[in-house]
Design goal:
The protein has eight helices and seven strands. The protein is an alpha/beta fold. The strands form two sheets. It has a four-stranded parallel beta sheet, with helices on both faces. It has a three-stranded antiparallel beta sheet with strand order 5-7-6. α4 links the parallel β3 and β4. It is rod-shaped.
Length: 275
Amino acid sequence: MAIVDVRILVEGASDVEVISKALQGLALGSEYNITVSSIIPTTNVEIAKSAAAGADLLIIATDADRVGRDLAEALFNELGQMVGHIERMKLPLGHDLENIDVELVRKELRNTLVRAGLKSLQVLPEYMELRKELLDVRGSYNNLASQYEALKKDYEELRKRYEDLRSEYLRIRQENESLRALLEKRTRPVKIEEAWRALFPAEPVPPEEYIAMAVDKLGLNGKILVGQGFIYAEEEEAINELLKTVYLGIAILEKLAGKREETGEETIPSAGREG
């Protein structure tokens, strides 16, 4: 069992001598398992704080008069949070080393130690209950700490999986956007008039049957579709090439028609005009 550290606060140097004399007749180690580590003569609160901090039991030994009572109360209020337990001990009035009844001081000191012990026994059940609660809380904390570590590991794995999935999602989304743009470009029918004027804004739009005839003659059936005023192909450039070919054919026909008119031969209707 650990030795209990007891410190005694007194008002002056003469009180140190009185307390020391009284202690000589007490077997503190064998009877109480305690040791008086210091007797501190001071009325200064700051000095008392420094000297008493950490004691298991602090005894404030002051005179039994009003001044002694007030001093003890002031020290008690200031030091209550710095030591394990505090007890008040009353010294006889008008004491000095020559006339003091040492046995009376010794008896008061013994009674003070007994009171401190009894009070400790009174709080022991409460202490044991608090200790049990502390152990329960510590057990719960350790259990929660284990759960936290497991959850933290799961979180890190899920976070990594999330980052992988997010990267894959972004990649697929980008691919889909590219494919959607390509499909929209390839599958959107184009008005014949708009496609023609984009290439030949100053030339009249040829009849739709001219373009359909060109598709047939060039063997583009299935690759290019013409109808209802629209033209469709998988590639926009294929439409442009077809219209350029039609334009070239019309230009050739018109040139031939001009020569025939000069020679009096039958003419061919011009592009964009009804024959």
